[in-house]
Each structure stands twice: as structure tokens, then as C-alpha cells.
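Running co-folding for zinc ion.
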Amino acid sequence: MYDDNCLFCKIIKGEIPSNKVYEDGDCYAFRDINPQAPVHILVVPKHHIVSVGDIDGTNSVYAAKCLEAVAKIARQEGLDSGFRVISNCGDDAGQTVHHLHFHILAGRSMGEKLV
Ligand code: AMP
Ligand code: ZN
């Protein structure tokens, strides 16, 4: 379930401090240390999954729980004018932490669109 060498597993366990936004039995959410928007929150499953590319029938429930948490956090944080959800997968996407996470970005217009 946990990977001893994983930064986000250490954050979930409280071994590395974080600015917690939300937590339930399956998910943990905290503010990104290098925010790319006025609101930049990371939502991670408590179960170690490397990326979206590793989701399958044995672990998809954890990803679904994270998306439920995204919706709850958006309401909790009052992101009524919109937000963007991003999950980088692998080198070309620029994934730097190899524990599945969903970025929530909000608080400004996202401007030029990649998608
Ligand atoms: P990615 O590049 O998609 O893998 O996203 C990893 C994110 O984790 C980056 O936006 C980093 O700023 C963020 N990050 C790295 N270390 C920490 C930390 N200790 N606390 C909060 N966010 C972090
Ligand atoms: Zn992990």
C-alpha cells in the first residue's frame, strides 16, 4: 500500500509536513509547495499507484475516490467560477512525483488552453 521511498506516501503518513486541505479514508489533499495558480491543490490516493497509466480493475476505486474528493474540495474551497484538473503521466508529461496525483488549479483564468 505504501512505498517507503515515495515522497507522497511520506506526506500521507505525516513523515513530511504538508499544508492539508482535505482527508478521508482513501484520499489526502494538500497545497502544492510551488503553486502555479492562486489555488493549487494536490489530491492523492492513500494507496500507492504510480500514475494514471497504472490504473486497472484492481485499483481504479482509489482513483475514483480521488475524483470524488476533487468535487468535495472544489465546494469546500468555493471554486464556483471553475477549476482545472490535471494528472501528469510519465516523462513527456513532466511527471516528477511517481505517486498518482490530481492537480486542482483555480483562482485565475487558465488563459491559453492546452486542451
Ligand atoms: P508532477 O510534476 O505532476 O509530478 O507534480 C508534482 C507536484 O508536487 C509539483 O507541482 C510540485 O511542486 C509538488 N511538490 C513536490 N514536493 C512537494 C511537497 N513537499 N509538498 C507539496 N507539494 C510538493
Ligand atoms: Zn506513494
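Result summary
The radius of gyration is 14 Å.
The chain has a mean pLDDT of 96.
Job closed.
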